[in-house]
Amino acid sequence: MTTGTDWQLTRTFTSSSGDVCWDRLGQPGRPPVVLLHGTPFSSFVWRAVARSLARDHRVFVWDMPGYGTSEKAEGQDVSLAAQGRVFTELLSHWGLAEPLVVAHDFGGAVALRAHLLHGVGYRALALVDPVALAPWGSPFFRLVREHADVFERLPPTLHAALVREYVTSASAPGLHPAVLDRLVEPWLDDPGQAAFYRQIAQAEQRYTDEIQGRYAGIDIPTLVCWGEDDTWIPVAKGRELAALVPGARFESIAGAGHLVQEDGPAELTAALIAFFRLPR
């Protein structure tokens, strides 16, 4: 696991769903890579991978609206549909025509929607334990989605305990206490508590149902990477997804759970670098 907790986004973009915090690493002129996080996480989970990739790439990282250090507001649209639009806006803002894209969990659906529905081009796409195939959502996730208004009223101490237990379950070997603290911190103040349940309430499967039938038409190099010990989305879903995308490569990471970036950052980085170096 990786334990470094120094991570800060220094730039802001005003999107159609609120202000987005973002940053970039690496030298200008190098091949661009964009990293998308999942839920309930932020760009923080990519810190080790991003710094490694920045040796040979220009790496772009961002916190989606409603996540991490980006804007959290009452009534905010943080659905997969909104995030796909925001990602499209960001790529235009950055001036990136066909970047390499690496997307985890919920971010996988965001990247797929941007490509399949908004016509965004990628040089290659790596999907890491993505939300992509129905049915999805753990029993806990579905329970919270159905009763988000009730959970939002939990006392702060109970809410904090729930979030910590939920995030902890994404890792197979367990998270360093300092890392766990950073992962849950954005959700613990009043705006964060409301935002945590807002994003779950808006996480509807129909947004992946809209695109699942289009996976066979993906014609860019694609890697599907999965933690073998993922208890949130079983590794069998990864093999199923790879079989649906023409020519997709599948690679599993031993000993890693859903949070592959935390459980196996070196192994994941090696898989990504090897994929990026394949002839196009």
TrEMBL record:
Residue ranges of domain AB hydrolase-1 in the record: 31-265
Domain of life: Bacteria
MF terms in GO: catalytic activity
Name of the featured protein: Oxidoreductase
Lineage: Bacteria, Bacillati, Actinomycetota, Actinomycetes, Kitasatosporales
